[in-house]
Design a protein that fits this description.
The complex is a heterodimer of chains A (about 800) and B (about 350). Chain A is α+β, with helices and mostly antiparallel strands and about 800 residues long. Chain A has 20 helices and 40 strands. Chain B is rod-shaped. Chain B has twelve helices and nine strands. The chains are: A alpha+beta (about 800), B alpha+beta (about 350).
C-alpha cells in the first residue's frame, strides 16, 4: 500500500521527516518498505513560455525557440519537436538540470546554434497522457496548468510529495486505505484524526424506481449497497485527483473509474461502476454462476465460470465476477450516461478461490480476500457520490439500496489490564490502555471493550495486549529471562548425529544438504528396476515439476547428484556425506521417516579405501559384530565390488563401487564409491556402555600361516574357519589377513592368503607347543572345510 | 718389560688420539686391551719375572690399562658427539617445505550455524524435539489457528500429499510445537530444527525446501519480556555481544502479540547498505506469545500458562553469518564452497 504524505494531511497533521515517520510507523506495526520522493530527482526544471519560435537555419526539422523562464532574459533552446507554438507554456530543463531517472541536461550547440537546455515531453518527466489527457503523446507537453514562467515544475506536477510504501499484514485489510493508515499514524504520533464529513445533494430521481437488488447467496454476499448517477459526463478527472491516484500507483482513466479507484484507496472499499443501460430487467442479482456460464471480463478475456463462483447478474446474464472484475458487457464507456455504483461486502474465501481459479488476482480481490469491514459499504458509496457532484460528473439519484443479508458483530471482550501487563511483562497504566484502544476506534465501556467493525481480527485478550504493546512500544519492554531451572541435553540419537558428522569429517568427507524430493528419472538413473520397491514413493500432488515430485525412498540419487555437480565443476575429487532423511510409505497415514548416513566419493579412493571408511565409522560408532557379505544383485552397485553391511544378522546398509553404468548416467567418468547406512538401525546395534578389560599380563605369541586355496573362497570364509578352529583353544585372540597373492608362484584359479594369528592366554605365558597345537588345528580345518592347504 | 709397557702406552695413546671413528676406537680397544691384545700378551709373560719385579710390573700394567681405558672412553665420547653432530647436519631439512597433507572434511555452513544455535539453547536448559516433515494438516495448520480458509493453505503455497488436504509437507517447523504440547505438560522449553517446504521457485532468496528452527517456552508467568531477553541472547551469541536487535509488531496466526525480530545489519553496522536494502536492519526471525487458542487446543489452560514461540530460517542465518549472497549456493554442494568452512 502506497501512501501520499500530502493526501494524509486530509485526516491528520504529521509534522516530521519522512524517515522519522517511516521508523515510528514501522515500530507501531505498519512496516514501511520504501520511501519515495519523486521531486528529489528533478532539479532545475521550470515552466517556460515560448516567446518566439523559428526554423533552425541549417535544418529542416529543428526549431529554435526563445523561452521566457522567469529570468531577466529569455533563453534560447533548440528543439526537434513539431508541436510548439509561440505563447505555449512548456516544461524547460535548464542547463545543469536533472530529470527523473538521473538524466542530466547541459547546454550545447546543435548544428551551430546555442541551446541553453531542453523542452520536455511528458515521458521525460515520467508522466503519460493518463496524467495529462490533453497533452500530445509524441510532442512537447504544452501545459494547460495554472502556472507561470519560472515556476519549479515539481509542485506543478505534484511531485513535491513523499510516497511511503507499507507492507500490510494479512490481518489488517483496514490499513490498505488512506483512512486506516491515517488512524494508525494519528495514534502513533498522538495527533488528532478526523474523516472529513461527506454530504451528497442528490436530486436525480429515486433509485427505487429504477433498480431492484436481490442477494441470492447471503453467505457469499453479506451486504450489497448501491447508488445511481445519471447524466454522466465522462471526462478526465481534475489534476488533484489524478495526482493522488498516481501517487498511490494507480493510473488515471476517466472521472467515473477514477472515483471508484479513489474511494478504494481512501476507504479501502473496492467499488464497481456498471453502465445501467447494459443491465437487462432493471435488476441486479447476486448469485452463484450457472453451470457452463461464461462471461467476458473487462480485460477482454472470456471466462468459464463454475457454480462455486459468485457473480453479479442482471435478469439475464452475469455482468461481473463478484469482488474480482467487472464484465465487458456493462463496462463504462465514453457513451455511458447512467451508472450504478456497487459497494458490497463479499466473502473473502470465496473471492480468493474464484480469483485463484480464474488466475486473475486484482486489486479488489486482494482486498476482499482478507475480509473487509461490513460497515464500510455505505460510507464508501456516499463518498463516491459526493465526488461525482464535486467533479460535476453527473447527477446523483436520491436514495440508496442497501441490503444486509447477514449481520456480523464485532467482538466484545473484557479489558483486563493486570492480565495484559502479566503477558507483556510491563506495568502499563489502565488509562493508557483505554486511551489507546479508544483512539484506535474501540469502544471502552467500564471493563468491557468492543472492537470496531473494521477489526475482525480482534477476538482475545491477547489481541488487545498487542494493540497496547505496539503503541507502548515493543522496544521499551524490558528484556528478561524466564526463571526456573531445567536440564538442557541432547538425546542419545542427537549426540550420535553430531558424532557421526565429526567422524565423517575426520575421515575427509564434507557435509552436503540435498533436496528431499526427487523425480521418477532419478530412480531410472540409479538403475532401479521398474517394479523396484524404491519406486513406491510418497507423491506430491502439486509439485514444482516432475523432477521434484517424489519424496525420496533412497538417499543415493541425491548423493550421486552432488558428486556429479562437483565433477561438472571440474573438481578433481570429492568426498561428501549427508545424514539424509528418506520417506517410506508403510501404508499408514504418514510415511516412516528414517535417516541414512550416506557417503560418496570419486577421484581418490578404491574399494578398500571406502570399505575402510565404512569400518572406521561403524567401529567408532561402536557397532557390534560387524560383517560384510558380497552384494552382487544391487543394480546401483558394481556386482563384484559391493558388500552388504551387517551387525550380526541385522542389515545396516551397503558399501561399494557404484555400477559403471550408473556412474555414466550421472556423467562421472571416474570410479565412484558410496556407503549407505541406516542410522537408526546402526544406533540399535550399539555395543553398549564402555567397560574396562584388564590389560593382558602375559605376552602374546604371533604365528603366520599362508595357505593356497581356490580363488572363489572369500577372506571372510577363511577367517571364520580359522576362528572356529581356534575357538576351543581359548587362546586365539585375533586373526588378520595380511597378504593376498595370485600369480606365477601359485597355480591359476588359486590364490595364496596369508594370515597372522595372535595367541595369548590370560593365566600363563604360552609355550611353542600351545601355539603349534592351534596352528595344527587351524590348518587341518582349512584343508578339510575349504581345501586350503599350507603353502 | 717395563720399557715395553711404556712403549705400548705411548704408542696406544698416540693411536687413540688419531682415531676418528667408533670402529677405529673399537679396533684399538681390541688391539691393546682385548683378550689377545698387547697388554694381555705382556701380562702373560709375567711368569718369567722375579718376585720383586712382578708386583711392580703388574701395577704398571694395570695403571696403563686404566689410563688406556679412560682415554678410550673419553675419545669414544668425543667421537660419538662428533658423529651425532655430523648426523644432525646431514639430516637437516628445509622446514619451510609444506607438511604432509591431512584432508579433513568440512561442515556445511548451515550445520555450523545450527549446531551453534542448538548449543546456545541447550545451555539455556532447552531440549531438542523432532517431528515429521510429511505432516498432518491437523498439526501443520488447524491447531496452529490457521483455519481451512487461511491463504497459506492454498495449493499454490503448500505441497499436498492427499487430495483431501489432510497430509502435506510441513510449511514450517511450528507443528512440532503442537506435538510437544500434546505429549508433554508445562514447563516446556524446546527447540526443534528441521526441514520445511513451500511452493516457491528457486531463486537467490527462495528455495522450495528450507530449514527452520522452532522454539517454544510454556510455563506459568512467561512474558513478552522473556521472549525479548531470550532472543536477544541468541542474537548476541550468534552475531556478537554488541549486536542490536529490533522487535517490530507483526502478524502470525499462532502467536499474539506477534513480532518480527531484526538484527542490526552485520555488513554495514546499521548505516545502510545493499545487503540490508539501506534499512540498517536485517530480518532474523518471527516470534510472539503463543496464541491462547493454540494453548487451549493442546489442552493447556491459557488462564494458567503462557508462553512464547519463535521460528527462524537457518538458510538466512547462515547467509548473514557467512556473507553468502545467494541461497542456491547452499544446496549446490560444490566443494569450492564447502571447502571454505
Amino acid at each position: 500500500m502506497k501512501l501520499s504524505m500530502k493526501w494524509l494531511a486530509d485526516y491528520t497533521q504529521i509534522d516530521t521527516t519522512p524517515q522519522e515517520y517511516a521508523d515510528r510507523m514501522t515500530m507501531s506495526g505498519s512496516k514501511v518498505e520504501a520511501i519515495e520522493q519523486p521531486g528529489e530527482e528533478i532539479k532545475k526544471v521550470v515552466v517556460g513560455r515560448v516567446d518566439t519560435i523559428e526554423r533552425h537555419e541549417d535544418s529542416d526539422h529543428l526549431w529554435v525557440a526563445s523561452v521566457d523562464v522567469g529570468g531577466e532574459a529569455p533563453v534560447q533552446i533548440v528543439t526537434g519537436a513539431q508541436n510548439v507554438r509561440a505563447g505555449d507554456m512548456v516544461p524547460v530543463a535548464l542547463h545543469k538540470s536533472r530529470l527523473p531517472g538521473g538524466v542530466k541536461i547541459e547546454k550545447g550547440k546543435i548544428r551551430g546554434v546555442q541551446s541553453e537546455g531542453m523542452l520536455c515531453s511528458l515521458t521525460e518527466l515520467q508522466l503519460d497522457v493518463h496524467d495529462y489527457p490533453y497533452a500530445d503523446e509524441d510532442g512537447i507537453w504544452i501545459m494547460q496548468e495554472d502556472c507561470s514562467p519560472g515556476d519549479d515544475i515539481v509542485p506543478v506536477i505534484g511531485a513535491d510529495d513523499t510516497i511511503v510504501e507499507f507492507e500490510i499484514t494479512s490481518n489488517r485489510p483496514d490499513c490498505l486505505s488512506m483512512i486506516g493508515l491515517a488512524r494508525e499514524s494519528a495514534v502513533t504520533f498522538g495527533t488528532d484524526f478526523n474523516i472529513p464529513p461527506v454530504t451528497v445533494k442528490g436530486g436525480g430521481g429515486d433509485i427505487g424506481e429504477m433498480l431492484a437488488i436481490e442477494i441470492a447467496d447471503p453467505e457469499l454476499c453479506p451486504r450489497y449497497t448501491a447508488r445511481m448517477v445519471k447524466n454522466i459526463k465522462i471526462a478526465p478527472s481534475p489534476k488533484w485527483l489524478r495526482q493522488r491516484l498516481r501517487a498511490c500507483g494507480v493510473r488515471p482513466i476517466n472521472n467515473i473509474v477514477d472515483i471508484t479507484n479513489y474511494v478504494m484507496l481512501e476507504y479501502g472499499q473496492p467499488m464497481h461502476a456498471f453502465d445501467y443501460a447494459c443491465l437487462t430487467g432493471d435488476k441486479i442479482i447476486v448469485r452463484t454462476a450457472r453451470p457452463g456460464e461464461t462471461m467476458n471480463t473487462l480485460d477482454g478475456t472470456a471466462r468459464d465460470l463454475t457454480p462455486d463462483m459468485l457473480v453479479i447478474a442482471d435478469a439475464d446474464k452475469a455482468v461481473g465476477i463478484a469482488g474480482v472484475m467487472g464484465g465487458a458487457n456493462s463496462e463504462i464507456t465514453e457513451e455511458t450516461k447512467f451508472v450504478v455504483f456497487e459497494s458490497a461486502n463479499f466473502n473473502g474465501v470465496s473471492v480468493r478461490k474464484t480469483a485463484s481459479a480464474l488466475g486473475m488476482r486484482t486489486d479488489a480481490s486482494g482486498r476482499f480476500e482478507k475480509g473487509l469491514d461490513i460497515e464500510n459499504t455505505l460510507p464508501a458509496v456516499e463518498r463516491a457520490c459526493e465526488l461525482v457532484e464535486r467533479l460535476g460528473a453527473g447527477e446523483v439519484c436520491d436514495g440508496v439500496i442497501d441490503i444486509r443479508a447477514k449481520t456480523i458483530q464485532p467482538a466484545t471482550l473484557a479489558l483486563e489490564p493486570e492480565r495484559i501487563n502479566k503477558l507483556l511483562g510491563t506495568a502499563i497504566d489502565d488509562r493508557f490502555m483505554t486511551e489507546t484502544l479508544t483512539k484506535l476506534g474501540f469502544t471502552v465501556s467500564g471493563n468491557m471493550v468492543t472492537a470496531p467493525s473494521w477489526r475482525g481480527d480482534v477476538e482475545h485478550y491477547s489481541d488487545l495486549a498487542e494493540e497496547i504493546a505496539r503503541f507502548h512500544g515493543y522496544d521499551v519492554i524490558e528484556p528478561t529471562l524466564h526463571g526456573g531451572l531445567s536440564v538442557g541435553e541432547f538425546t542419545a540419537k542427537q549426540q550420535a548425529e553430531r558424532s557421526a558428522g565429526k567422524l565423517c569429517r575426520a575421515l575427509g568427507f564434507s557435509e552436503i544438504y540435498t533436496y528431499s524430493f526427487i523425480g521418477q528419472t532419478d530412480y531410472d538413473k540409479i538403475g532401479a528396476a521398474t517394479d523396484s520397491p524404491l519406486r513406491r514413493s510418497v507423491r506430491i500432488l502439486n509439485p514444482l515439476g516432475e523432477d521434484r515430485s517424489l519424496m525420496r525412498t533412497t538417499s543415493l540419487p541425491s548423493m550421486l547428484g552432488a558428486l556429479a555437480g562437483n565433477w561438472g565443476h571440474r573438481n578433481l575429487s570429492a568426498k561428501l556425506y549427508e545424514l539424509a532423511t528418506i520417506y517410506t510409505d508403510k501404508g499408514e497415514q504418514l510415511p516412516e521417516e528414517r535417516q541414512i548416513l550416506t557417503l560418496g566419493s570419486y577421484g581418490e579412493d578404491g574399494f578398500f579405501d571406502i570399505k575402510g571408511v565404512c569400518e572406521a565409522i561403524l567401529r567408532e560408532m561402536r557397532v557390534d559384530d560387524l560383517r560384510f557379505r558380497a552384494e552382487t544383485d544391487n543394480p546401483s552397485y558394481h556386482p563384484g565390488r559391493a558388500a552388504a553391511v551387517y551387525s550380526g544378522d541385522t542389515r545396516l546398509g551397503v558399501v561399494g563401487q557404484i555400477h559403471p553404468t550408473v556412474a555414466k548416467n550421472y556423467g562421472i567418468s571416474r570410479d565412484v564409491f558410496a556407503i549407505e547406512l541406516d542410522f537408526t538401525v546402526m544406533l540399535n546395534c550399539h555395543l553398549g556402555e564402555m567397560t574396562y578389560t584388564q590389560v593382558a599380563r602375559f605376552p602374546a605369541v604371533t604365528r603366520d600361516i599362508a595357505v593356497v586355496c581356490d580363488k572363489s573362497i572369500t577372506a571372510a570364509e577363511l577367517t571364520d574357519c580359522i576362528r572356529a578352529a581356534g575357538e576351543k583353544s581359548k587362546i586365539l585372540r585375533e586373526v588378520k589377513l595380511f597378504d593376498v597373492y595370485a600369480g606365477d608362484q601359485v597355480p591359476p584359479d588359486k590364490k595364496s592368503m596369508a594370515f597372522s594369528l595372535n595367541l595369548r592366554a590370560d593365566d600363563r605365558t604360552l609355550v611353542d607347543e600351545d601355539a603349534d597345537e592351534v596352528v595344527k588345528a587351524v590348518l587341518a580345518a582349512l584343508d578339510e572345510q575349504l581345501g586350503a592347504v599350507i603353502r | 718389560m717395563q720399557q715395553k709397557l711404556e712403549q705400548i702406552k705411548s704408542e696406544a695413546l698416540a693411536a687413540i688420539q688419531t682415531a676418528d671413528t667408533p670402529e677405529g676406537i673399537e679396533a684399538l680397544r681390541v688391539k691393546y686391551l682385548g683378550k689377545k691384545g698387547e697388554i694381555t700378551s705382556i701380562l702373560k709373560q709375567m711368569g718369567g719375572l722375579s718376585a720383586e719385579e712382578r708386583p711392580v710390573i703388574g701395577a704398571l700394567a694395570n695403571e696403563i690399562r686404566t689410563a688406556l681405558e679412560d682415554t678410550l672412553a673419553k675419545k669414544d665420547a668425543e667421537i660419538e658427539a662428533l658423529v651425532l653432530q655430523q648426523r644432525l647436519i646431514a639430516e637437516s631439512l628445509d622446514v619451510t617445505e609444506p607438511g604432509a597433507e591431512i584432508k579433513f572434511g568440512r561442515q556445511h555452513p548451515m550445520s555450523i550455524v545450527l549446531d551453534e544455535v542448538k548449543d546456545i539453547f541447550i545451555g539455556m536448559g532447552f531440549q531438542i524435539a523432532e517431528g515429521p516433515e510429511v505432516e498432518l494438516s491437523l498439526y501443520g495448520f488447524d491447531r496452529l489457528n490457521s483455519p481451512i480458509t487461511h491463504p497459506s493453505r492454498e495449493w499454490t503455497d503448500t505441497f499436498y500429499i492427499t487430495e483431501d488436504e489432510s497430509v502435506h509437507l510441513r510449511s514450517h517447523t511450528s507443528p512440532v510445537q503442537i506435538r510437544v504440547m500434546e505429549a508433554q505438560k508445562p514447563p516446556l522449553r524446546i527447540i526443534s530444527p528441521g526441514r520445511a517446504y513451500r511452493k516457491d521457485e528457486v531463486d537467490a532468496s527462495h528455495s522450495p525446501m528450507f530449514h527452520q528452527i522452532e522454539g517454544l517456552v510454556v510455563d506459568r508467568g512467561v512474558t513478552m519480556g522473556d521472549l525479548k531477553g531470550t532472543l536477544n541472547l541468541l542474537a548476541s551469541k550468534l552475531f556478537g555481544e554488541s549486536t542490536k536487535t529490533r522487535f517490530r509488531p507483526h502478524h502470525f496466526p499462532f502467536t499474539e502479540p506477534s513480532c518480527e525480530v531484526d538484527v542490526q545489519c552485520v555488513v554495514c553496522g546499521g548505516t545502510g547498505c545493499r545487503t540490508c536494502k539501506y534499512e540498517g536492519w536485517l530480518e532474523l526471525l518471527g516470534a510472539g506469545m503463543v496464541h491462547p487458542k493454540v494453548l487451549s487446543g493442546c489442552g493447556i489452560d491459557p488462564d494458567v500458562y503462557s508462553g512464547f514461540a519463535f521460528g527462524a530460517g537457518i538458510e538466512r542465518m547462515a547467509m548473514l553469518r557467512f556473507g553468502i549472497d545467494d541461497m542456491r549456493l547452499l544446496f549446490e554442494n560444490d566443494m569450492r564452497l564447502l571447502g571454505q568452512f
